[in-house]
Amino acid sequence: MEDYKYLFKIVLIGDAGVGKTCLVRRFTQGLFPPGQAATIGVDFMIKTVEINGERVKLQIWDTAGQEKFRSITQSYYRAANALILVYDVCSQATFDSLPQWISDIESFAKHKVLAYLVGNKIDQINSKEVPTYIGKQWADRFEMRFLETSAKDAENVDILFYDIAVELTKDAREKDKLESDCSGFNISPNTKTINRCTACFKF
Amino acid sequence: MAASINNATSATDLETVENLTDMKQIQDAYLKLCKDEEELSKDLDNLLENQTTLEDKMIGLHKTLPNLQILQTDSKQLCSMVTFTSTLAENVSSKVRQLDLAKSRVTACMQRVEDILDLKFCTDGVQAALQNEDYETAAGHIHRFRSLDENVLKLSSDMNQGTSLDTSFKHLHEAEEKMKTIVHNKFDASVQARDVASIERFFKIFPLLDLHEEGLTKFGKYLAAKLSEDADKRLILVLKGTDSTDRRSNVLFADAITQLFEDVARIIEIHQPLVEAKYGSGRLITLLKIIQKECDRQSRKILGEFKSKRDFDSRLQHVQQSLIFHKQLTVEKLDPKDLDVLLSEVVLLNTRTELYLRFLKRRAFGDLETAFQDEDKRKEKEAEVDKVLQSCDLSRLLQEIIGSYITMEEYFMREMVLKAVVMDSTDSGSQTSSMVDDSFFIVKKCVRRAMSSSSVDGVCAMINHACTILEQDFREVLFNRVRAGFPSGFDLTQAYNIVQSSIQQGKLQSSDIEKTKAQFLTTLNNAEVSSEYSKALKSNLEEEVLKLFAQCNEQSIAKLESCLSDLGAVANKFKDVLEFGFSQLTSSVIKPKIKPQIDAFLSTSHNISEEEFSNYEANDPWVQNFIVVLDSMLGSFKESLTGTNYDKFVSLVTGECTMQLEKSVMKSVFNRLGGLQFDKELRVLVAYLTTVTTWTIRDKFARLTQMATILNLEKVNEILDYWGPNSGPLTWRLTPAEVRQVLSLRVDFRSDEIKWLKL
Fold it and tell me: So which residues are the signal peptide here (chain A) (predicted)?
């Protein structure tokens, strides 16, 4: 059961109702629950994926967006290996509150944590309020990765999580290598190359 | 040619026989024929033997033949009989079916007649009962009448006595309407008059008139009003009784809300059987919703009073400000101790609420279980109950309060830990300083308090915060102290003695450098103990959590376990500090201390004459002095370090000794006596180190001991007595190349001999 090489914690944050729970459910269970109730406190799901032949366990923490749970959800930031900050492309208001979220990340998360900015609900093309390039600009400004997704149509959802898993695995391997180098063991140098093409993902 | 003739003979063709001319061929043919004859007669004998058995069988068959004929006729007879019976049965059963149909019609007819009679009876009964104000009977009649199929009755009656039936129905409908108004009015009147008996009396009538929802709503409202009245009265009493001398004054509001919950629970306890008996199961939720609404209203009042009387919001604000202006010293900080009592009351509020909500859930689920056999339908209803309970005002209010609680509890924990660090002191005779015990005590207290709130998310959050504080804030303090390093004084031995004695005497009046040294060692001990404490904290909390939250769902348990495992990982962070500290100690104490001694070894010749060898025996060249130095160094640290740390220190010293000595051996030259001398020296050293450690150090000296063995050889070839298949229990730690290298240190060994050695 506990057969995996790495364990990563991914924490989803963002305003209430932007679709964090739906993104998680889409990725972990492959379904889109309509009429999802507001998350209470923090929920978590697990999915094990295979990255270049190695099993990687993703522990995905889905936090409540409502203000009253903030003190609980913030306690999870520090242990996170990656943070996904979600807004709703159809709601300017959820985009406008990003600065607050960014400042929270800066005060509570680990320095230089892998952060992703995600604009969700792109299936509702007609009511889109935040243009893609604006989101992209924002992400660039705060050195975050950027992706627009639809939990409903499953668009970019797997890509989002797999990209994170690949990146974290890469970092972890480099760290492992560094440590083993320090302790005097030599690992053949060709282990360093990591193939990052998405076609290699095994589902 | 001859061959073909032979073949022909074997065919025993007479013509061929006649054509035979050669005597030998004739003889052959004759022999062949004789043989054939013999075989044929054997075959004939066999056939004749079989003849009797075959004849017997034939006779048997002849005998059975007549029997078979009888059997055939019998079978035919049987077949016709079966056919006959089946037709007969067919006929009978069709008649039975007809009878059955007729019977069911008769029954239906009787039923209808009975219904009509009932109707008559009801019509008469209702009038009489209404006149006598016997509402139960009247409602019973109406209930009976409602269960009759009106349309069918009308159909059957059209022909003969239609008019009287119609009037009956009309009467009954009128009576029903009348009953409904009466029950409504009477119920309201009873509520007004606070006549509990009548209220219950009319409450029971509602379902007979098919007014389940109305009945439950009215009754619910009545109960809610009663609840509200009691709660209001009590709140006034509570507010009056904010006497600070009372033992319970610190948890006044928790007590108040508990009483409210107890009231609600009592109401449900008392009325649930009544509802289930008269309204059927599956309807409790309607009543619960109404009562919960009132409970929400009352809770809001109590919590509102709680917040204002306890300065909840203003304290929260104060804490939030302190968190924002973390580094600005100008902002006056809230004394964390001021929060202690408040926090304890908050967790009590929450745990009571959780308990209450669980009670409601259990009741509602129990009701649904008897009502719905269908799994899916029940799940759906259960989800509705969950939603009602999760989204009720009370839940929301408590979620907010727990959120604020976490902020304040975190503040409390961090400030108290920082305070413990500031007030850090070392007691005489203690190897650690006060901040370790104090900090871990605080962290444990805070997490356990969060646990007593029964809020899973609250506990998880506090465990996370505990990790942060230990791993970041507290570890940082230790790390910075270790990073300052261990100062290397001029006269080390003396310095250690002073540290030691000052710790023993409990006063640190010696110079700053000694203080720093003492503090460094204390910090090492702190880090070691902290690592152990972290593990203990994790396992203690885990045990308690699993006990306290055993009834929670899997998801919650998994969440708790994940957070706890992070707490367990904190131990490793302290280990890192410890490792770093020891590396500091190695470079500033161990290395400089051992280096001169090893140099003494180097400067001692091991290419010695007999005379020098015996001279060494009397006047030891270096090893005794080395041991004295080691002993004083180890001795000076023994008192100041914890057991584990001291072992670690000795292990580092030993490691350094062996490493340096190995290097030096490789740089020296030996003759036979020198090798013997070295072997002696090594034995003395190992013997000494064995006395100061609890574990075996021989393993660490394995390579050196093996080197000594090699240096001690008479001849080069002698090595083969110990090598390869002759090594016995000995495991060589030296590679063949190293063995050659060591051999070449012997000045009296020839290099080509070493080179040709087969290892």
Answer: none
